[in-house]
Amino acid sequence: MEQIFSYGTLQSKEIQIQVFNKLLTGTPDQLKGYKLKDLKIEEEFGMADYFVAIPSENPSDEINGIVFNVSSEDLTKADQFESNAYKRVQITLKSGIVAWIYMEN
After folding, report:
1. What's the rounded Cα separation, in Å, for the pair 17 and 2?
2. Contact 68, 3 (CB under 8 A)
3. Which comes out higher in pLDDT, residue 48 or 94?
4. Tens digit of pLDDT for each residue in 68-87?
């Protein structure tokens, strides 16, 4: 089993059904030393506003989100869903869990 930390779109039940064809199981967690930055991504019908995690100069900054248990197959589906404006990297969450996260590319 893999873990993926979501601070945005993948927390949506509708998106989970669309991407994984099921609802994911997860628990709240935080990523310390990071902050969210606005990101504009071109979609089929124009530009859309999203957020992307970036390292912060302030170690007390944190991003709230949910860490989900996913299979390797689910991780591949998430990679296909996420825009090429993001890259997947491993991080350690406040809980000590090592998880994948999509960050600024």
Report:
1. 18
2. yes
3. 94
4. 999 999 999 999 988 676 88
How many CB atoms are located within 10 Å of the residue 11 CB?
Answer: 14
Tokens at 48, concatenated:
């859309």
CA–CA gap between residue 33 and residue 11 (Å, rounded): 21
SS3 category, 76: helix
pTM over 0.85: yes
**Residue 34: HSE in the Cβ half-sphere, 13 Å Cα cutoff:** 22
pLDDT averaged over every residue in the chain: 88
Q: Spell out the residues 6+ positions from residue 67 whose beta carbon is closer than 8 angstroms to its own.
A: 3, 4, 5, 6, 26, 27, 28, 29, 93, 95, 97, 99
| Domains along the sequence of the chain with CATH | 2-104 (3.10.490.10)
E strand map for 1-105: 2-6, 25-32, 34-43, 46-55, 62-70, 86-92, 98-104
Q: Give 38's pLDDT tier (boundaries 50, 70, 90).
A: confident
